[in-house]
Design goal:
Strand order of the largest sheet of chain A: 6-7-8-3-9-10
Chains: A alpha/beta (about 290), B alpha/beta (about 280), C mainly alpha (about 270)
Number of strands of chain A: 10
CATH superfamily of the largest domain in chain A: P-loop containing nucleotide triphosphate hydrolases
Largest sheet of chain C: 2 strands, antiparallel
Order of helices and strands of chain A: EEEHEEHEHHHHEHEHEEHHHH
Structural class of chain A: alpha/beta
Radius of gyration of chain C: 23 Å
Structural class of chain C: mainly alpha
Shape of chain A: globular
Helix content of chain C: 55-70%
Strand content of chain C: under 5%
Order of helices and strands of chain C: HHHHHHEEHHHHHH
CATH class of the largest domain in chain A: Alpha Beta
Shape of chain C: globular
Number of helices of chain A: 12
Number of domains of chain C: 2
Strand order of the largest sheet of chain C: 1-2
Helix content of chain A: 40-55%
CATH topology of the largest domain in chain A: Rossmann fold
Distance between the termini of chain A: 41 Å
Oligomer: heterotrimer
Distance between the termini of chain C: 47 Å
């Protein structure tokens, strides 16, 4: 757990460099992402979250600072960018901007062909990827993208990147716009992938309940600076600070606060509903 | 008053595979009510909403807005004057290139005189807290503020009924809170009737009445309190359960009896204290 | 790789200089007048005159000459290419020929005329840049609307045309953002959009057009619903905006510019410089 797979050192980012409009949006970030962990990046809008994500798969190359992915500096001119992007897969917020081809099979093949996978393994790889995300390949292989539901599109998008056999999964606000069932399904499949394939998972989320459910560690990014990076219990205990950044609290934490205010002494470190249940049972049994 | 009588709707009725979207929906909504509609994607919520301002007209049955039948083409603009609609994605609803001009767009279409328009626009801007942004181009605003602009645009038309089709689902958590707050403010004034489609149970809890839809039919139509005491039905429809009924049902399983009608934190606390 | 954040449409720069304050309607008319004037120039001294005038305007608008010049950088290869072609394939009075090979002739006059054209194009680039640096896109479309609306009387569909323009301007940033997302999503899955020569890159980029069109159509569908829900049914019966009153500044700047150009024109004429 303690081995770093991504190291970010003193990273800066500016828009419109060299013009009068220049604006610095990341101000010297330094942190590490550990092998196999699930790291949540949380921050108000315009905090630089999405910008930061794009350094991990070298869509952005640092002009100032360094990003080291799996012991390779993304600035290194000898670096094989394709190989890096195969290793670091990225799921975008809207599946529509990630699916470019007409049919499910064509779309998943898009990445495989770019990465020069041999022709004879492409079909079997597509079927395997579909199976991993829980889509029946008999039903979905030749389906047209436009005939899929929102949840199905999301799954095809994941299958498209899983087919490339990545080691790191980057998710940009993955549950935004999904209905409750879609959200639960999606979170479960991410957990499943993590546990089964051991993927290091980095995700941006605007939903604190997702953070509680998925994250091993949480980074709070405000105005391009890291304010905190710690395990969720230590993050959500700092309620006032989070609220002052314009963030919200997970619903369980909000309830815990209200319970404490009304004189029911549950542990203020509670962040999920299982812990709340145990704590309430303890209190009720002792009284 | 909105009256829906035995409404059926089928997409592509002439084609090889017609899709039934609404079946035998009957419903009436009184003035000043705040009605929430929940249901899985594809359950017919949006199709129902689109009938209320005559974007769609019934395959069978009727929809009456203050007695005006939406089926007659010549009533179209009268219906839309009364029923405004706020959609999910604010990005695709903003038409003009500044906040103020976009809010004026609706009333300008109605041909209202200029002075009255400016008055209405001022009032809507004030109500939505947009004064600071009125000359901004919309793409410079956060998505939450954009959604407030679209709400202000509907308000400025002076519509009596406003349909919200998942207005907060594309927003970040702070945006969700802020937009829902302005909608609650509208409700307090009771000047408009609100029909609110959502997936968020904490929003549903604030409504007067909740309609649960599944497969094009109305399954439940009751106060949110009553609805949330029927956890089994909600779970069978894959809908979210608010946090208090959720924790209560967990405690019930562990042998602590908490009545099913307990929905608010206050009720929950009182109940715990009595145990 | 950051199209959206690195481009500002119209390149407007906030400010409260004299040029910023002139009513956009007047600025549009003046821009047209100046461009017409530039295209009429036939001597180098005329170019110098206009150049000096532009320097004055740049000073008055608080912009930087070098900043505007920098904007030419991306199109420089194309400009040079056109210049070379013009010189090589110059048709007209050949005059003194410097070099000849098959059908390619390079003459002194050819070089002169081509350079002259180039300078004029650069002047037009400069004056339009100053215009967009000091005029917000919004006030620009608004001013256009006011300028062409009177044409409605002669059955010219000016409302509809302006509406199309307004929506187009409104959606440019959205679609650029969308394009950027698509490009990044393709790169993330191993497409080399950022590699290869111009032709290869163009072919690869064309693969983005279909998804971009689909997305644009979906947006258009949503937009139509939103507009109809807000009772839009064309220009008829709509309330019009009230025009802002023009200020003394607008009149003086208009008169000053027109006067300057007329005097320049006459002086040059008189001394037979044009």
């Amino acid at each position: 757990m303690s081995k770093a797979i991504i190291k970010v050192e003193n990273l800066f980012h500016s828009y419109m460099q060299g013009t009068p409009f220049e604006k610095e949006v990341l101000h010297g970030l330094s942190f590490e992402v550990y092998h196999g962990e699930k790291l949540a990046i949380v921050g108000p809008t315009q905090s630089g979250k999405s910008t930061l994500l794009q350094y991990f798969n070298a869509i952005f190359i640092p002009k100032k600072g360094r990003v080291i992915v799996d012991e390779q500096d993304t600035k290194d001119s000898r670096l094989n960018l394709k190989e890096l992007r195969r290793k670091v897969a990225m799921l975008f917020q809207h599946p529509d901007s990630q699916l470019f081809k007409e049919t499910v099979a064509d779309d998943i093949a898009f990445g495989l062909k770019n990465m020069n996978f041999p022709e004879e393994v492409i079909e079997i790889t597509i079927k395997k990827a579909l199976a991993t995300v829980g889509l029946d390949s008999n039903e979905f292989f030749y389906r047209y993208i436009f005939s899929l539901s929102g949840g199905e599109k999301k799954k095809v998008a994941i299958a498209g990147i899983l087919a490339l056999n990545p080691e790191i999964l980057i998710l940009d606000d993955p549950t935004a716009g999904l209905d409750p069932k879609g959200r639960v399904d999606f979170l479960n499949s991410i957990k499943f992938l993590h546990d089964k394939l051991g993927l290091t998972t980095i995700f941006v989320s605007s939903n604190m309940n997702d953070v509680v459910e998925l994250a091993d560690r949480v980074m709070i990014l405000v105005d391009g600076k890291i304010e905190m990076i710690d395990i969720p219990e230590n993050i959500f205990i700092k309620r006032e600070k989070l609220l002052s950044y314009g963030l919200t609290l997970p619903s369980v934490v909000e309830l815990v606060d209200e319970l404490i205010k009304s004189g029911i002494n549950v542990d203020e470190k509670i962040i999920n509903i299982d812990q709340l249940e145990e704590s309430l049972i303890k209190i009720l049994n002792s009284s | 008053m909105i009256k829906i009588n035995d409404l059926y709707f089928t997409y592509y009725p002439e084609s090889e595979n017609p899709q039934k979207a609404l079946t035998a929906v009957s419903l009436s909504i009184k003035e000043g009510e705040f009605v929430s509609i929940i249901g899985q994607n594809g359950s017919g919520k949006t199709t129902l909403a689109k009938h209320l301002n005559a974007i769609l007209t019934p395959t069978k049955g009727s929809v009456l807005i203050d007695g005006i039948n939406t089926r007659n083409k010549e009533n179209l603009w009268d219906v839309r004057k009364k029923v405004g609609m706020v959609f999910q994605n604010p990005e695709n609803q903003i038409i003009c290139s500044t906040v103020r001009s976009d809010i004026s767009f609706g009333p300008e279409n109605l041909g209202i005189n200029r002075v009255e328009i400016e008055n209405r626009v001022d009032k809507s801007i004030e109500l939505m807290g947009l004064s600071k942004y009125q000359d901004y181009p919309p793409h410079m605003l956060s998505i939450g503020l954009k959604q407030k602009v679209t709400i202000a645009g509907v308000l400025a038309m002076g519509t009596k009924y406003i349909i919200f089709d998942e207005p907060t689902s594309m927003l970040d958590s702070l945006g969700k809170k802020e937009v829902f707050e302005v909608i609650l403010n509208l409700r307090k004034k009771r000047e408009v009737t609100i029909i609110y489609i959502t997936h968020l149970m904490e929003e549903v809890l604030k409504s007067d009445r909740t309609i649960v839809m599944s497969e094009g039919k109305i399954v439940l139509d009751d106060s949110p309190k009553k609805i949330f005491s029927k956890l089994k039905i909600l779970r069978s429809l894959s809908l979210d359960v608010p946090i208090i009924p959720d924790i209560s049902s967990r405690l019930n399983k562990r042998g602590i009896s908490i009545p099913s009608q307990i929905i608010t934190t206050q009720e929950f606390v009182n109940c715990l204290k009595q145990l | 790789m950051e199209l959206y954040k690195n481009t500002i449409f119209g390149f407007y720069r906030e400010g409260d200089s004299l040029i910023h304050k002139i009513d956009p309607r007047i600025k549009i008319i003046l821009l047209i007048v100046i461009i017409i004037f530039i295209s009429f120039i036939r001597t180098f001294s005329g170019i110098v005159f206009i150049g000096l005038f532009l320097l004055l305007i740049i000073k008055l608008s608080n912009s930087s000459f070098f900043y505007i010049l920098k904007g030419l950088k991306p199109v420089l290869p194309i400009i040079l290419l056109i210049l070379i072609f013009q010189i090589i394939f110059y048709i007209g009075e050949p005059g003194k020929i410097l070099f000849q090979w098959n059908f390619i002739k390079i003459s002194v006059l050819g070089i002169k005329v081509s350079c002259f054209m180039m300078l004029k194009a650069i002047l037009i680039y400069f004056i339009s840049s100053i215009f967009f640096l000091t005029t917000e896109m919004i006030s620009f479309t608004d001013a256009m609307e006011r300028l062409i609306l009177p044409l409605q009387k002669i059955k010219f569909p000016s409302h509809e045309i302006v509406m199309v323009g307004v929506i187009a301007f409104r959606f440019v940033p959205t679609l650029v953002e969308e394009l950027e997302r698509l490009m990044k999503a393709q790169i993330a899955r191993g497409a080399d959009l950022d590699r290869g020569n111009l032709i290869v890159r163009t072919i690869k980029l064309s693969g983005l057009l279909i998804p971009l069109f689909i997305s644009a159509y979906q947006r258009a569908e949503d937009l139509v619903l939103a507009m109809e829900s807000r009772c839009y049914r064309g220009g008829e019966g709509r309330t019009r905006r009230i025009a802002k009153k023009l200020t003394i500044l607008d009149f003086t700047s208009f008169i000053f510019t027109v006067l300057f150009f007329s005097l320049t024109f006459l002086t040059i004429r008189y001394f037979r410089l044009l």
